[in-house]
Amino acid sequence: DAGVIQSPRHEVTEMGQEVTLRCKPISGHNSLFWYRQTMMRGLELLIYFNNNVPIDDSGMPEDRFSAKMPNASFSTLKIQPSEPRDSAVYFCASSSRIQETQYFGPGTRLLVL
Amino acid sequence: LAKTTQPISMDSYEGQEVNITCSHNNIATNDYITWYQQFPSQGPRFIIQGYKTKVTNEVASLFIPADRKSSTLSLPRVSLSDTAVYYCLVSSTGTASKLTFGTGTRLQVTL
Fold it and tell me: What are phi and psi of B70, to 5 degrees?
C-alpha cells in the first residue's frame, strides 16, 4: 500500500483565496483525521470521520474551515477565505478503527501571504 | 476528556536508556495509550500502543501502572537518529470519543 497520500505537498497562496487540501486514506481504513501543526500550538486535531461521517469537528477553528469525505477513499479540507494565520502544516491520518494506530500522510505545508 | 501532560524536552547521550513519562489522570476505562514519534518535516509515526501493564516491541517498551493514570515510554540505548518529538495519545472507543495528543516531548540525543 502507498500509505496515506496528501496533495498538494506545498501550497502558497494569497490572503482571501480558497485553499483545498486533499487526502487519500489507506485502503480499508474506516477512520480519517485532519490535523494542523504549528510551532505555537503544536499538533491539533481539527476533525475526524468514521465510515465517512464526521464525528467530531470541535477542533475546526472557525466557519472558514470545512471538511468533507464523500467516499471512503477521499477527503478534502477547505479554507475559504484563507488568512495568514492559517499558515501551518496540515496532516491527514487514517486508521482501521478510531482507537487503532493512525498512519499519517506527509503533510501539506500551507503558506498564506 | 483525558488530557495528557509530558515534559517539554529531554536530553540524552547516545547509548543511554531514555524514559519519557506521560500523565493522563482522567483516562477512561476504554482508553488506549499510544506513542508516536515525529521527525522534522514528517508526519508522526506509530511507536507503541498499550492498555495496561507492559508492552514491548522491537523499538520500545511501554509501562502502564495499575491505575493507568500515567505511562512511560522506554527507549533502550538511544542513538542520534532517535532525536525527535515524542507524543503521547489517549484514544477512546465509540463514536462519542475525543482524541487528545499530548504536548510532545522533544528528545535531543548527543554523542
Answer: -150, 170
Distance (Å, whole) CA B12 – CA A96 = 35
For residues A63 and B33, give the distance between their C-alpha atoms in angstroms, rounded to a whole number.
32
CB–CB contact A101 B49 (8 Å)? yes
B49 touches A at CB < 8 Å: yes
A94 has which bridge partners? A32, A103
Which chain A positions have a beta carbon within 8 Å of B62's beta carbon? none
pLDDT tens figures, A72-108: 999 999 999 999 999 999 999 999 987 778 899 999 9
Q: Which pLDDT score is estimated for B30? A: 82
Q: Kindly determine whether residue A105 and residue B91, on different chains, have CB atoms separated by under 8 Å.
A: no
If one counts every other C-beta atom within 10 angstroms of the C-beta of residue B57, the result is: 10
Nearest CA in chain B to A53: B95
Strand order in the sheet with B70-75: B18-23, B70-75, B61-64, B53-56
CA distance to partner chain A, nearest, from residue B110 (Å): 23
Q: Which of residues 87-106 of B touch A (CB under 8 A)?
A: 87, 91-95, 97-101, 103-104
Alpha-helical segments (H) within chain A: none
User: Cα–Cα distance between B63 and B53 in angstroms, integer?
Assistant: 6
- What's the whole-number mean pLDDT along residues B51-58? 94
**What pLDDT digit, counting tens, does each position of A24-82 carry?**
999 999 999 999 999 888 888 899 999 999 988 988 988 999 999 999 999 999 999 99
